[in-house]
Amino acid sequence: NRLCTAPNNRTGFLCDDRVTCVPASWVCDRVSNCRNGEDEQEQLCGDLPHSLPGYLVFYCSNPRSWVYADQRCNGMNDCGDCSDETWSVAACPPCGQEWWSCSPVHFQFCSCIPRRLCRDGIQHCLGWSDEFLC
Questions:
Q1: Is residue 37 in some structural domain?
Q2: In this structure, what DSSP letter does residue 14 have?
Q3: Taking a C-beta distance cutoff of 8 angstroms, is the pair 56, 11 a contact?
Q4: Domain containing residue 10
Q5: Tens of pLDDT along 53-100?
Q6: Which spans in the chain are helix H?
Q7: Any idea what the Cα angle at residue 75 is, between residues 125 and 89, rounded to 5°?
Q8: What's the structural domain count of the chain?
Q9: Which DSSP letter does residue 46 get?
Q10: CA distance 25 to 17
């Protein structure tokens, strides 16, 4: 079993050295992050996403779409339909401290926007709460 916890409490892939934990989205990215390159081996990367262990994959609501498990609940609309952020199967916690909860106007976000976008003079939430309340 190569499941491990990468930085920021994200799902990871354990290298052969049994110490290095590579974030899931770094697996099969054509860059060797493990000393022996096991995160880029053909048996792991040959038929994405089917060749990946299940813990590295999150399937979007569209069954043909998937993202790496560490992209689930990261605040970004990686699936394109927000199923990786708001769908019940994703089981994401509410917006964290660095985020503001609202209905975003930009496709990039789902149910939260980064707080750094608050009071920047640009509407990011439908009700303008990012400019007046955040």
A1: yes
A2: E
A3: yes
A4: 1-74
A5: 999 999 999 988 999 999 999 999 999 999 999 988 889 999 988 999
A6: 42-45, 129-132
A7: 115
A8: 1
A9: T
A10: 19
